[in-house]
Design a protein that fits this description.
3 helices; disordered C terminus; 79 residues
């Protein structure tokens, strides 16, 4: 698939992310969608161009809802 515009890329990522939500039977959530879209964009930049490839990578990388949580250290964390 050759993308002709930024809108095409957005649609490609949205469809791949939707496949992740369907695969894990998870309700749509904006925070999770943002995590998955950012990861999908990174995969796209790495050369993965098809919706199926992107969805497969997302499904394999983010196994279930818990894997989409981003751990942010608290300010009280000792390094």
């Amino acid at each position: 698939m050759t993308l002709e515009s930024e809108e095409d890329l957005v649609l490609l990522l949205a469809n791949a992310v939707d496949q992740w939500f369907r695969y894990y039977a998870v309700e749509h959530d904006d925070r999770v969608r943002d995590v998955l879209c950012n990861a999908g964009l990174d995969f796209y930049k790495a050369g993965y161009r098809s919706e199926d490839d992107l969805a497969t990578l997302l499904i394999g990388t983010f196994v279930g809802l818990a894997s989409t949580k981003i751990n942010t250290p608290a300010s009280a964390t000792v390094h």
